[in-house]
Amino acid sequence: MAVNYGSKRIVVGAHYGLRDWLAQRITAVLMSLFTFLVIGQLIFSKGPIGYYTWSGLFSAQWMKVLTFSVILAMAYHVWVGMRDIWMDYVKPVGLRLSLQVFSIVWLVGCAGWAIQVLWRL
């Protein structure tokens, strides 16, 4: 019977955080570009900025689709960040799981509400 002392350990998570890091950067760039687009449209709008200016800005179908994409990107961006915070700083497994479930429910609720408001315009 051969005993294998000193066997090499296979590390499977060599690039584990790369996907999340890249997702954070891509969603941040998307949200930044969207913000500059909205600010640019508001700067070049005529008259006072009120309800009708805002509803006119978001009434076009392409803007609704773009805003929908940004809402989903923001929800994913927040989820990755909050999940990492819970995993890094909350050590009791039950509490961590509860906070993660609460975060998911909260983010889905906020995204659903934002989309409902967006398509009501």
Write the layout of secondary structure elements.
Elements: H1 18-43, H2 51-57, H3 61-89, H4 93-120
Structural key phrases:
121 residues, 3 helical TM bundles of succinate and fumarate reductases
Q: What does the radius of gyration come to?
A: 22 Å
Do you know the CATH architecture?
Answer: Up-down Bundle
In this structure, how is the largest beta sheet organized?
A: none
Strand content: under 5%
Strand element count: 0
Mean pLDDT: 89
Helices, by number, come to 4
**CATH fold name:** 3 helical TM bundles of succinate and fumarate reductases
What would your notes on this structure say?
The protein has one domain: Fumarate reductase/succinate dehydrogenase, transmembrane subunit (3 helical TM bundles of succinate and fumarate reductases). The chain is 74% helix and 0% strand. It is built from 4 helices and no strands. The protein starts with 17 loop residues before the first helix and ends with a helix.
